[in-house]
Amino acid sequence: MYDPDTTTRFWLIRHALVAPESLSILYGTLDVPLCAATRAADAPRYAAIAARLPRDAVWLVTPLSRTRLTADSIMEAGYGAISTDVEPALIEQDFGAWQGLPMRDFVNRPSQHPFWPVGGDEEPPDGETFAAMRDRVGDALERLAKVHAGRNIIAISHGGAIRAAIAHALDLSAHQALSLAVDNLSITRIERHRHAWRFVSLNEQISI
């Protein structure tokens, strides 16, 4: 049964588009920069997102600057300044030794996913599988839901981590989760109720 006093509502936002030179590599947890030109052009989108988000919320970013800068842009576009906490568990998948390699190196590999260069159950050298990221993200969501029960949580995160969050909420396999589209600056919403997770929306695009 829905209980607003204990339901924790997660607003998961994928960071803004990264710089063009980074799009051609598997960047994972590398701290790549945002695209400056796109960030300036997206000012109306930031304002629309700021108007859409709840005001009484806990704000989280990951250790990577692209999430911090995206949060700053939303706040500067009308949400207003608010303190943010860094949540390392919501960081992108660690691709280990493969990070920084050209995306073309991953074309037509036997373990490749139809929509992603690394298979869902594949473990990169010195990295982590999607399943490991799903466990990491899922544990963090359960912890945050207890600590902030009944609150709104706005988390600026990454495409892979948001897919992992949905996989945790809906009990999806890694292969299924990697088939989900999570666009930059889109909003995904899930809720932690007393006894279950509820999926609300995926890849919400805010009208300008």
TrEMBL record:
Pfam families: His_Phos_1. Gene3D superfamilies: Phosphoglycerate mutase-like. InterPro entries: His_Pase_superF_clade-1, His_PPase_superfam, PGM_Phosphatase. Coiled coil: none annotated. This is Histidine phosphatase family protein. It comes from Acidiphilium iwatense.
